[in-house]
Write a structure and sequence with these properties.
Chains A, B: It is a multi-pass membrane protein. Two copies of one chain form a homodimer. With 192 residues, chain A is mainly alpha-helical. Helices cover 71% and strands 7% of the residues of chain A. The first copy, chain A, has one domain. In chain A, strand 1 and strand 2 form a beta hairpin.
């Protein structure tokens, strides 16, 4: 970038500066969106593979009578919503990653689109995290007031899956907030 | 605004145009943020007043033995989080409403601040809605797989409160998404 020895290239170096910034910005966007994709897919897969069969006692029978009973994610609508939300967000992250890579020139419009849609997906991912987290907390601690028994003292592996998936989706929600902020801030810098 | 009869005011009319747009924008912002405040406060109040005492049978005793039992929001951590989130968002909406009213000139910086913070509050409100909605759904339908009994067949009034609060907070989340989009889009229009 040393343009002191060649004064002829100084006129070319000036318009390169915003392009370099745009490229850096684009690289950051692509990196974060790939990370978002990984987070969404892993959250959905970890939640989807949450399945454990244990021998549990049946109410109405003596405690020695135990039957195999399976806990899986599809038993709770909150967990089904979680997987749907993570899948949709994963798909969105693929589309936006490809858009970040291919569209390097029309940054203004693409920044606007990113900033607008990212907010919607912040809402989707945060609500899915909240719903799954709220149900998972009941599974972990139970609720004595309404006699909802905890299940994580029996289904350890199942609960580890649920907990991990919720933690990863919380990370994904943070990433989306960051991505939306970056898009907005880059729009702002273009004004000044 | 008819400047045809007075050509001298035509030079003054031109710079007035962006100010009028900014004023219109500010009025929309103020209106939506006041609506957001109303939604957050009503959601928090409706959730906070969710309390109902009913005579319920006790397990281990014959069904004729019934004791008074109270269902209230504080029995669930998800509902406590919901009230906390709505209170914080209500406070935020007061601050941003005052900022929208007082700062009519420095719109660029204030738009950026709104666009950045609104996204964070979209996440907070959406996660609170998700958590409360997830727990409320178990209360409404129960979950046979883990033997969590439904409670809304006994606590009708309590469940109406919870349901209304969740519906209003969903509306508040939509408002925040809209507000964030308006801020971002106004920033975008300033570039062109």
């Amino acid at each position: 970038m040393e343009s002191t020895d060649k004064p002829a290239t100084a006129t070319e170096a000036a318009p390169l500066q915003p392009a370099a910034t745009a490229a850096e910005y684009s690289a950051l966007q692509v990196g974060l969106r790939v990370l978002l994709f990984a987070a969404c897919v892993s959250a959905a897969v970890v939640m989807g593979t949450a399945k454990q069969t244990e021998m549990v006692s049946v109410p109405g029978f003596p405690p020695t009578v135990r039957v195999p009973f399976t806990a899986k994610y599809s038993h709770s609508p909150a967990f089904i919503y979680f997987i749907a939300a993570m899948s949709v967000t994963g798909l969105y992250s693929i589309i936006t990653t490809l858009a970040s890579i291919s569209v390097s020139r029309k940054t203004k419009t693409i920044l606007l689109a990113f900033a607008l849609f990212d907010v919607v997906f912040v809402g989707i991912v945060a609500s899915a995290t909240g719903a799954a987290g709220g149900v998972a907390y009941i599974g972990l601690r139970g609720n004595n007031h309404v006699r909802w028994n905890k299940i994580c003292n029996v289904y350890h592996k199942f609960c580890r899956h649920i907990g991990s998936a919720v933690a990863v989706s919380l990370f994904a929600a943070g990433l989306l907030v960051l991505l939306s902020m970056i898009s907005t801030f880059t729009l702002y810098k273009k004004i000044r």
